[in-house]
């Protein structure tokens, strides 16, 4: 038996270091990411319990890279901001947002 995801599926892993590097536009940001990533992988290789810190680092850099690229999950941030300021688009309350968090 197999299962397919419901809805649109992006085959890219946004936490893959290569994907993060592809989104970083500034050479300084690339160097900083590589430095932090190398330190975190070396530490995680020697102390397995630090693997969670490596995952957290990748999540943080993925968010930073998306913000620098001006997109989050394929959405244009500037366009989304303009929609919010104009009162267009879906609205969600803070309770709903917090309840949806993992």
UniProtKB/TrEMBL annotation:
InterPro entries: DUF6247. It comes from the Bacteria. This is Uncharacterized protein. It comes from Actinomadura macrotermitis. The lineage of its organism: Bacteria, Bacillati, Actinomycetota, Actinomycetes, Streptosporangiales.
């Amino acid at each position: 038996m197999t299962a397919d995801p419901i809805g649109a599926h992006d085959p890219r892993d946004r936490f893959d270091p290569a994907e993060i590097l592809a989104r970083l536009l500034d050479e300084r940001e690339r160097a900083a990411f590589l430095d932090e990533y190398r330190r975190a992988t070396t530490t995680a290789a020697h102390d397995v319990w630090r693997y969670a810190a490596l995952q957290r680092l990748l999540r943080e850099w993925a968010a930073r890279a998306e913000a620098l690229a001006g997109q989050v999950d394929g959405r244009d941030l500037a366009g989304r901001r303009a929609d919010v300021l104009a009162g267009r688009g879906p609205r969600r309350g803070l309770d709903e947002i917090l309840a949806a968090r993992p």
